[in-house]
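hi! just following up on the protien thing from before. the input was this:
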Amino acid sequence: MGSGSGAHLTAIVLLLFCPVHALADTLKITSKPSGATVEIDGVLAGTTPFEKDYPGGYFHKTKTSMGSRLEHPMVARLSLAGYVTREVRMTDGPMNWISINGRNRGEYWLLKSDHFEVELRAVEQVFTGGVTANLASAGSVDLQPELSLEELVRRTKPAVVYLKGLDYSGTGFFVTDTGVIATNAHLARGEESLLAFLPGGQQLEAKVVYLDADLDIALVKVEGKDFPHLALADAATVKQGEEVLAIGNPGDAMLFSVTKGIVSAVGIFANAGPGTWIQTDTPINPGNSGGPLLNNRGEVIGINTQKLIKKNVTGIGFALSASDLLEVLHRFYPNVSAVSSARNTRPVAAPASTSVESASPATDSAAPVGSAVETQPVSSFASSGAQPADAPSEPEARQTPAGLGSVTITSDPDGAEIYVDDKFVGNAPAKLKLPAGNHVMILKAAGFKEWKRTLEVLKGSQVTLKPALEPAP
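and the predicted 3d structure came back as:
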């Protein structure tokens, strides 16, 4: 073979096996307005307008088995102060790469386009309406009348929705009458919108407007108004042993199914993730994810998230407490106080441009089940050590007791769970405002004996407790 033939053969080999290194296409991401931070698959990539070269095999099917191909989906996350964060699924797939001889070379994804233009919406345009909450403000809890099981379902079911995405389906529930729905982040991750089915048969597009991957909480929004929505009750109102109800859409079963159980435990459970958790024996299945766990007053005490699947273990499910959901909502609805949890180590601040239209208790279909809407900032038990503010003036039926005292609690070990009058209120260290009178104080920590005392709180007093828990035998 001559030298010319050898050179020709070499060129063919290089073309077949190294084509993508010589060719690349440019991915562009722009936004309106510009200047948004761009993360791709969780990695900070730059700001808009954003450009980056990727192998040609990411944009169109590679020609050879040796060519570069995208072996995972790509999701872009755009965030800008004062605007709702957007996540954009940029790829189609997975698809199987089959060679000419019929051999399966594995899965690949392709970018939908070489240019993505994302329109960002201002926070105040999305988060309208008001959030209803029953907070353990200054040690008082506004308890609504208990409902029969049938009445509880009748009142709350209209506010529950079935959510369906490209890869997952689950449950959510309205938290405002203007269409804001709470659900799990793992259901909405990588989705721009979900399909929302209401119990009455109506179908709506629900746009993903916020994700907190750490807490597995997502907020989605449908257009409209006067939606029935549910009141939230923080973890301090939850009692071990009380009856609870779950409404959801379990896989391979009828939609909007109802199951009943009790609260098995309340507190921190690292195996389930960050936040305050409610353990329950209420049957929870995958399609229940994102749905409400309700007390017998029709208030949401938690978001059903998972059940424990282990050999010889049955009847154990977990819901992330409504306290953690309230922490998220406080960023957009500052007149509903954030409820501190053991995870709350970062500051929570609502955008300065956020405006809130505080709803009033109503008697129509948009009226929430549970306590009256909070129209002023209110304080809660704080586990972060911050000083709670005094509760604002309220209607006579909901007046905070006139005499308050301050109790500061630290513990050894640090992080012990604090219970006041059998209600979980957070973790030490904490600074609480309690009504004047006697209160039963309990501290619990794994591996230690329970610490219990009766404390008399006087009006205007400031008390410091520094209990050292004894190791369990």
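The first helix runs from residue 3 to 17.
The chain has three domains: 3-120, 124-329, 401-465.
cheers
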